[in-house]
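Exercise 7. Given the components listed, write out the predicted structure of the assembled complex. Treat all entries as one system.
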Amino acid sequence: MKKIRELWRRLSFYFRRDQFDRELDDEMRFHLEMKAKAKIEDGDDSINASFAAKRQFGNQTRLKERSRDMWSFRWIESIGKDVQYSFRMIGKSPVFASVVILSLALAIGANTSIFTLVDAVLLKKLPVKNPEELVLFGWAGGRNVAYLGGSGSGRTDKKTGIRYGSSLSTEIFERMQQQNQTMTDIFACYAIYPNMNVSVDNRAEIAAGQVVSGGYYKGLGVRPIMGRTITDEDDKVGAPPVAVITYDYWKNRFGSDPSIVGKNAFVNGVAVTIIGVTQPGFVGTLGISRVVDLSMPLSVEPLVDSLPRSTEGNWWLRIMGRLKPGVTVQQAQANFEPLMQQSAMERLRNYLAQRPDPRFANAVPPMLTAIPGGQGDMFQRSDYVRELYILLIIVGLVLLIACVNVANLLLARSGARQKEIAIRISLGAGRWRLIRQLLTESLVLAVAGGALGLLLAFLSRDFLLSVSVLGGNRLKVDMGLDFRVLGFTAAATIATGILFGIAPALKATRIDPGPALKDTTGAASPGRSRLTMGKSLIVIQVGLSVVLLVGAGLFLRTLRNLQHVDYGFDAQNLLLFDVNPSLNGYKGEALRNVYKQITDRLNTIPAVKSATISMYPFMRGDSWQWGEPKVPGGKKAFDPNTSCYLLAVGNNFFQTMQMPLLAGRQFDSRDTASSPGVAIVNQTFVRLTFDDDKPIGEHFEFDIPRGKQVFEVAGIVKDSIYEDLRSAPPPIVYFPYEQHMADIDRFAEGMTYEVRTSGDPIAIVPAVMDLMRSIDSKTPIENIKTQPDQIDEALSDERVFAKFTSALGLLVLILAGIGLYGVMSYNVTRRTREIGIRMALGAGAKRVLAQVMRETLLIVSTGVIFGAAGSYFATNVISAAWFGIDDRPNMLFGVGPHDPFSIVLAALFLLVVAAIAGYLPARRAARVDPLTALRYE
Amino acid sequence: MHGYGIAQNIQQTSEDVLQVEEGSLYPALQRMQIKGWLTSEWQMTELNRKARFYKLTKDGREQLEAEMKKFSRVTGAIWRVLEKV
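Answer.
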């Protein structure tokens, strides 16, 4: 408080400095006069008295200065002067300043954008009360862990073999609540999969839902902006079903309807009352993997979930809690682990009592994991880490290049300011004072660039979000600027200013004023060393640019290669859409009929050549597997590390997809629910499973928990991709879906229609919508897209990387051009007299031109060689750094990290830019008039 | 009291033992104003001249007391040491 008042006094002083000076003057004069008067009264004569008084008083000017210093912020004033002076210097060379500021703005803007993304995906906390107090529980265990299965995210650490799971059982949740000593609140949620059919006011749409415990909103401290949130009363079995919707859902789906509270919604056919809308920004606690639209109590789950997970013993709940003040996460973990392990072992014993299973003979209880939960669920988020960090490295590289480039321009310009600096040194300016002045100038430039960059990043954030479809999912994150982003940009800006400013400042002030003032042609050594430094900077800049361009080349080639993979079917003129009648209560025969009815009706649309159905489309990332197939009596053993994919399809699937049948027959009306199981298999399946290559009529089987499933091979179809473009075509088994209706009914995940059209597939969308409305208006159509779009989605990462690195590649090429032009221009200016002499002695214009060009290309070639070596090293380091952490495939496809084509292309681009940038100064050199040149200064 | 008065006072009370550069009083007065120990006001002297008069504030009095306590503790300690010698 005192400090604040003190600051206030100082500040108010600042605005009445003149008054202060006057008053101090008056006061001191008064003092001296009084003193002199006293001396006269003591008998001194008036002149002596006045001198004596002054002597006793001390140095007036210094005392005034000291008094003033007491009040003012001297350093601020002197920095203010430096800044003022910097503006004047920048104003003198607007072109230079614009080039510097613009290139810094682009580089800093790119960094800010990517950091905003990193912040939004990896760093931002949930918009709830004191998120740092939240804890997220889960489990971990080795291969013999007492875990019987559940619903939720999980992953296995490839190195240690430890399994991690996100979800725990209702039993554990209840025991945790009973024996809680460490948390103020414990609550749980479960995201319902698949999305639900939500119908309000007779309009059915698909929405993402979750169920939550009664204490969820209270524990999180999330408030309703309208109505109320879910309470323990709502979470009792038999309580009337209620739902709370998020602000975004309320705004987008209901147009911010003010009368939403109290409305009835039919969620998967169950009547639920909407009781409230939560605060803006809150979209659940599952992180970017799952943005929630509506939440219902846990007790409603068995009613609305098409495949209930709240069955006894199922591990399905994500449990969170809020720590009591002063309690650590470790203490909370210790509080709950014993009861969780006890529950796990009890469950296993009960299970083994009914079904003895040797696999669980030596089972050990899982460990309870407790991690800070302030950011919500992180299971999916870590999937983006690799991509985001590579993007950060790339933009960091661009910033470094921009720094080197600006340093070079400053250096060349300091040549022009050599005289000014020499004068200031000879007038007694200290070297550090000058360095500070020059650094202030670079910081002013950097801050201008940083501010503009922040603006660019802010303006491009929606665009960035629209392209940042990492991992095939469009990111749903809040891209708002927060203190972390601003701090990052500020730090990047200041670091940039110092980084590019320091070397030229040191160099510029290390001159001997004598020769520098006399000799203006720059033949003295400082000019030469500055040139050497400029050339080295260009070599560094070109080298870094090569690294970036090689990266861009690799990503572009990867994208191109992936786009030219042979799919094994014709993707053109193929429309896909999903329908899930199960969510609207269709079961058994009714479900079978509605699927068939839709197929039949689709075939009557004029522009449709043929229509078919499958459990899901190719390339969506969905897959169905039953383990390894076996041929009874066969010699070949199927490799357990190869995934054998299954797909249930309609009768004319292969005809619609235009996948050639190589042997046997299509599925047809013979294949019914009651007829023997048949399958059509692809070439790879035949090769990996059967001893012969035409096994029509032969049998194979899958051994799954519910018993052996035997199939007869009806046909062999050409290989195709399944869920991934990067792998070789996998073994695939196709079943007639009518023989698997029981599974389709049970999974309740809906099916996909594939429609082959004669023209643009999008043109038939209205007809499809009409058709579906006439069959059942409450079963909406989802995920309408063409097959090429579906495949493209799988390439989103590659596209983002290719586009982003090429755009930045273009930027660094321009920067390289500017930098080179700057250095060579300076070089030519410096040597004007020398060139003039040579020309006077008979050197031709062509020869001068060639000489300058040769010099340019020599510098650039050196840079290119360093860059090529650097990129070889960099790709090695990057691939080594990711090896082992991440079990996902290599980011490149069809090219090695040391792709010579990309390196040669990068080198060529740079050489062309260098030739253009070097030609202009070279031509100027060639046009030097010997007479003018010799008189030059 | 105005600056000149303060200086005179110090000189007379200390019987000319404490003779400092009189002017150095003024930066010190400024510092004490910043700290909020003093306030100042322009007033007329008995001789009808305008002068800046300084006054101790509540904060200033507290500070003075604290300083005096500290000072007497230190001098007391010094005395005790000297007496032992």
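Discussion: Chain A has four domains: 2-72, 195-305, 383-563+796-935, 581-778. Chain A touches chain B at residues 2, 5-6, 9-10, 23-24, 26-28, 30-31, 34-35, 38, 56-60, 63-64, 66-67, 69-71 (CB under 8 Å).
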